[in-house]
Amino acid sequence: MNRLLVVDFETTGSHPRQGDSIIQIGAVAIDDGRITERFSTLIHPGQDIPPFITQLTGITNEMVADAPTLEEVFPRFLRLLDGRVFVAHNASFDLQFLQEALLSQGYYAFDGYVLDTVELSRLLLPMQNSYRLGELASELDIVHDNPHQADSDALATARLFLHLLDILQQLPLVTIQRLQMLVSSFRSDISVLLRQIEMEKLTELPELGDEPAGEKSQLWDIYRQIALKKRKEKLKASFQRPMGDWGKAKAFAEQLEKLMDEQGQLQANLSGFQRREAQEAMMHAVFDAMQDGKHLLAEAGTGTGKSLAYLLPGIIWAQQNREQLVVSTNTIQLQEQLLHKEIATLQKSLPFSFTAATLKGRGNYLCLRKFEQALDEPVEGSSQEMRLAKGQLLTWLTQTETGDVEELSMPPSGQLLWQQVKSDTGSCLNRACPWFSRCYYFQAKERAKEADVLIVNHALLISDLQAENRILPPYEVAIIDEAHHLEDAATQHLGKQLTTTQLLFLLDRASPENGNAIARFTAELASWQPAVSQELSVHLSQCKKLSVSLRDKAQQLNQLLFAWASQRAEETTDAGRETVRYRAASFTGKNEKIRKVTKKLLEGMTDFAQHLEQMLKSVPQEEKPPFSIRSFQTDLYGLLKEWQQVMELLHFFLLDQDDEYVYWMEVESRMARKQVHLSAALLNVADSLAEPLFSQKRSLIMTSATLTVKGSFSYVMSRFGLDKLPAERVRTLVLPSPFHYEEQGLLLIPSDFPAPGKENDQAYLDAIVQGCVDVVVASKGRTLILFTSHSMLRLVYQAMKERLAEEAEPYTLFGHGIDSNNRSKLVRLFRTMERSVLLGTSSFWEGVDIQGEELSSLVIVRLPFTPPNHPVYQGRAEALKAEGKNAFMSLSLPQAVILFKQGVGRLIRHHLDRGVVVVFDTRVVESRYGRSFLQSLPPFQVATGSWPTLRERIAPFLRMQSLSDS
Fold it and tell me: At what angle do helices 592-617 and 517-528 cross, to 10 degrees?
């Protein structure tokens, strides 16, 4: 494996046996870890190159017209390949073309070793977001000048391989040996490469079986034959140390002025920092609210710099008062951004030191004991994807300090593995666990306890309320960023969910087959205590028998629920699922079978649980069992607890419902897997927030760019339960954006568009499609189109693709749920491709930050009202009606206005940005409530009128941006 040839072929298509041919060969020879030779040539394919291949590669028919044929080129290429390992990125593709070419030229098939850099990258770079060559090259700073040209691709792949080889050579011996056991039957010959690395490492050892002392002590913590990356020293809360001069003696205004003046540290450490009046006003308001023990609602327009505006005063107040500051964001990604960007800047800038940490839900952390157990499972019988996932985790352990799943990029089977190895309360040995001192979750808890600033997400904040403050350290002040999401987070995390897939997966995990935890536990227990083997055998036999019938009943229930729901469901969710609200009374008459099967399933699950419990009680109390038995016993008690929870959920969802909840089912009829999502949400979450959160805490700062409707906070006050507090306890603040929207933004609302109709209304659909095409052409691409439904997005996407194909210049469309479900990936592609258009649903209405000319126009197809048949909205609307309130004005309209403001906020993200917003929903100017939307927006130039007139304004307005830039 010291002589390799890295190969890339460009071809006319993907099927060599159906006539597709090679049009370019790129090859790079590697000898003893160094690039020694390069080979590249175009090839005449004997057929026309399809236009899409020319668009992808840049290789035209003219370029290959005088190129040599494959027959003329092959002898030289094969001399280079002779005796070498064949290496390629996605090797199966290039290998099939090689084998077909060899066959057609009368040569023997290639029978040497093959290595695939995609497979190696997945194994050795488990924290990468993508394993495409272009994105790997970008992430790893590998020069890749001409993607999709064979010479550039081959050279980039060669450099990638050398990088991966370097990682392998640095891995500790124990990791190499464990990886080797997992990859023995992979498609490529990674096991041969690993064996070579293993032999090299063994020859370096002073004594067989030992790691080099220096490597062991400096880089790795090797324990129980698993290598971990050495962790950093524990945090020490600096607020506990003497304050020096930076104490209460100085007024906050004086401290702030010192930090922000031209000689201040913020100017030095924050690139492009400018003093902003609104930002400083927010800083003073945040500090005063904490000092006075008040809650503050602060709406800060785009460009205010709200992260710094709440962090700086919050940290100073916490430092002066020797308190921990809790900051809650909506997503885990925002947690990481705050920690590594804004917090890192303040750590450099403030005249005192402070520590910061993030904490996430327990299921985000790896349990090392469970992973060790998973590694010990028989390799035979497990899928290649599952073994790859285990290999990824093994490598990751030498790279991670947190054990946080958010760092990983695993295949779907990896998600199943994660459910098996994640940390959870029910199966934790605590201090009795041999891995306790290295446990990622308990270390994260320790860091959270010691940190001066603790960053959490809304889900964990709500979970802590549910757990009566047993998850987070005690706190008195907190900042809730993206606070407009707080009610949704509370609705989800105070609600209940169960999927039929989750039920079937639990039954599969509990099925006592060979290699399963139950089977391994009984085998080890019988070996240690032969006296109980007979009793164990009886219970195990019963569990096996019950397991088969339980799966049959669960499958039957799944089919019944899916059939019932799919007949009645309508699309109401942003995930494209179809939804139907239900009550227990729905399952009567001819649908009574749903209740009967549920009862039978619960009876069987009860019997199974009793047998499992008896097996667990067979462990003698008077003797200390071996660790392996204690480990299995703990896991099975955890399984039993989860089993009980699922039984309770089945009873809650299908047999005995609670009037305080609204219930619904979701199905995805387009998916091959027929699964049902059962959900329930509290009708009123305000009480769950008001008492344990707002009544008990000293000061909560709630901030967002969108908290008001027509300048009023009354909507969010009522949804959070803040209207139940004494008025003097809550302060409000609206801070305008520093942007000049009158000059930077143009809002167009055509008055001659059809009223929003159903998607099957052809006249309405044609008008939307033509309008979107007009905007895209006038803007030369660079357009984001926002939808409220996936089905509408798909219809418009297809129609736009056809119409834009007729344009002289090519356009690239990216549709969420069509080209990818990964929002970050779609935004990245949109930004890098010229004349591109991005179509997105609700997750794109916020959190998308594209500055400059990469985004010039924004289209809002229709106002983002929650569908009136959405179960949670229906339930809450009924409750409001019972109180004598107007559900549309109290709930539907404010929700839509806030989301509309978020959507419009995607366009102007910087003081130099310029752009056009087009709203194709005439209700914004024709309805009485339409002014609520317009009055909640920044002061754009607004124009209404006929669309043929309005669309002529787009190109000139955007051209002014280009002129100002030049």
Answer: 30
Structure confidence at residue 701 as a pLDDT band (50, 70, 90): very high
Task: Measure CA 274 to chain center.
Answer: 33
User: 526 pLDDT exceeds 70?
Assistant: yes
Token representation of residue 285: 């308001």
The answer to whether 495 is annotated as binding is no
Task: Indicate the pairing of strand 578-581 with strand 661-667.
Answer: antiparallel
The string of DSSP letters for 804-829 reads: HTTSSS--EEEEBTTTBS-HHHHHHH
| The token pair that represents 183 in the structure block | 């990859």
**331 among annotated binding-site residues:** no
Backbone angles phi, psi at 588, to 5 degrees: -125, 175
Distances (CA, A) of 846 to 185, 279, 898: 45, 21, 11
Q: How far apart are CA 174 and CA 168, in angstroms?
A: 12
What is the residue whose two structure tokens read 């159903």?
A: 758
Q: 454 phi and psi, to 5 degrees?
A: -115, 125
Q: How many Å separate Cα 783 from the centre of its chain? A: 24
Cβ atoms of residues 133 and 87 within 8 Å? no
Per residue in 709-762, pLDDT (tens digit) is: 999 999 999 999 999 899 999 999 999 899 999 999 999 999 999 888 766 688
Planar angle of CA 244, 250, 254, nearest 5 degrees:
125
Per-residue pLDDT tens over the stretch 814-873: 999 888 777 888 898 898 888 999 999 988 999 888 888 899 999 999 999 998 888 999
302 labeled binding residue: yes
Q: Which pLDDT belongs to residue 670?
A: 67
Name beta bridge partners: 571.
578
Question: Which domains does the chain show, CATH number per domain?
Answer: 3-170 (3.30.420.10), 199-230+363-450 (no CATH), 243-355+699-735 (3.40.50), 498-682 (no CATH), 741-965 (3.40.50.300)
355 marked as part of a ligand binding site: no
Tell me if 515 is assigned to a ligand binding site: no
Examine the pLDDT at 620 and tell me if it is beyond 60: yes
CB atoms within 10 A of CB 802: 10
Q: Is 303 annotated as a binding residue?
A: yes
Nearest-CA neighbor of 661 among 497, 889, 502? Answer: 497
Q: Which is higher by pLDDT, 703 or 238?
A: 703
pLDDT score at 672: 65
Average pLDDT of the chain, as a whole number: 90
Is 306 annotated to bind a ligand? Reply is yes
Kind of pairing between the strands at 676-682 and 812-815: unpaired
Q: How far apart are CA 783 and CA 101, in angstroms?
A: 44
Residue 468: strand, helix, or coil: coil
Q: Answer for the pair 56, 150: CB distance below 8 angstroms, yes or no.
A: no
842 labelled ligand-binding: no
